[in-house]
Amino acid sequence: MLTDDQDEYSFATLAVRAGQQRTSEGEQSEPIFPTSSFVFENAAQAAARFAGEEKGNIYSRFTNPTVRTFEQRLAALEGGECCVATSSGMAAILATCLSLLKAGDHIVSSENIFGTTRVLFNKYLARFGVETTFVPLIHLEAWQNALRPNTRLLFLETPSNPLNEVADIAQLSSLAQAHHCLLVVDNCFCTPALQRPLELGADIIIHSATKYLDGQGRCVGGAVVGDGQQVGEEVFGFLRTAGPTMSPFNAWVFLKGLETLQVRMEAMSQRAQALAEWLEAKPEVSKVYYAGLPSHPQHALAARQQAGFGGLVAFELEGGKAAAWTLIDSVKFISITANLGDAKTTITHPATTTHGRLTVEERAAAGISDGLVRISVGLESLEDIKRDLQRGFDGISKR
Ligand SMILES: *Cc1c(COP(=O)(O)O)cnc(C)c1O
């Protein structure tokens, strides 16, 4: 359903309908196919499937109908030709790099990316002869200066986490094109509901489906979206060989997550905007990092490039680490966890958690101060979220 005539439908419709193929049972909701292998009608069909002469399922490390439905739906939402699902967001990045790079190739990456991605580049890919240069996300000149003849791939997350810096995807795409390298965008924080990097010239989209695509904190998974050659042949070929594929159950959970993605992203963006404005007016808060605020340096770019500003809000407390911990320890229902993208609002202290392993200098360079707090705004009532945080602010002023 809605695979051949996708262009005729809007995002909201595709999010609910794309990729579904009803079986003869006439089910309304998509079925889960928990099967490791598939049977053939006869020996000739088996031979034809294995030879690649006939399309069809063989084994769930290669293809699975539930996983395929998720892949087709996400591809439709990103406006991509092809999507392959992976066992995690990290597996999506690994599969992209190992299938499209070789020893001697060079990556230029924005510096404030997901910590584990940095470890993947620095510790593991480096061992296989792929070197990475890290540059500040928002400085186009730094990207330009970092390019080498062997640069094959530009990698970035925009907006960045937790400081919500925003890069100009179209500009970076021109740079990538001029140097014949691939532009890979980790679209975890905006999701296609708020930002469609392929339309801005990116070549490949990475997802940690674990975050907003699921949106309810249930499963770990990931995806790569792009064209039929790089993603459909190369990344898919690596995955079916190396094995970090998505389970049908997880695919089903993510598939259902996609159906509510747009309404969730809109609701979270609205709450985050109101919360950022509320925080900006607090005397205990010295700075709020949210691209929806006119005070944000890339506010205009974000407004142009994104359909919303997303659910992550970071802010700095005058009182440093003591104030940050007091605020965090005062909340009653907001979850103290580094995870994000959940219907449940979460709060975290980056300096001692996600960025705790960095040296003091590295943290300073990344802009992670001791007074920084990050909130991933969920779907609870905004008034309740504010009330929960106000308890913390009362605690800070009493100290
Ligand atoms: C969480 C995250 C990842 C890794 O995803 P997993 O599903 O945890 O493997 C990659 N990129 C970003 C931006 C993330 O937030």
UniProtKB/TrEMBL annotation:
Keywords from UniProt, A to Z, are: Amino-acid biosynthesis, Lyase, Methionine biosynthesis, Pyridoxal phosphate, Transferase
User: Which InterPro entries does its entry note?
Assistant: Cys/Met-Metab_PyrdxlP-dep_enz, Cys_met_metab_PP, O-succ-hSer_sulfhydrylase, PyrdxlP-dep_Trfase, PyrdxlP-dep_Trfase_major, PyrdxlP-dep_Trfase_small
Q: What is its EC number?
A: 2.5.1.-
Write out the catalysed reaction.
Answer: O-succinyl-L-homoserine + hydrogen sulfide = L-homocysteine + succinate
Q: Which GO terms describe its biological process?
A: 'de novo' L-methionine biosynthetic process; homocysteine biosynthetic process; transsulfuration
Give the required cofactors.
Answer: pyridoxal 5'-phosphate
Pathway annotation: Amino-acid biosynthesis; L-methionine biosynthesis via de novo pathway; L-homocysteine from O-succinyl-L-homoserine: step 1/1
The record's section on NCBIfam families has:
O_suc_HS_sulf, PRK08133.1
Give the protein name, as stated in the record: O-succinylhomoserine sulfhydrylase
Q: Which organism is it from?
A: Nitrosococcus halophilus (strain Nc4)
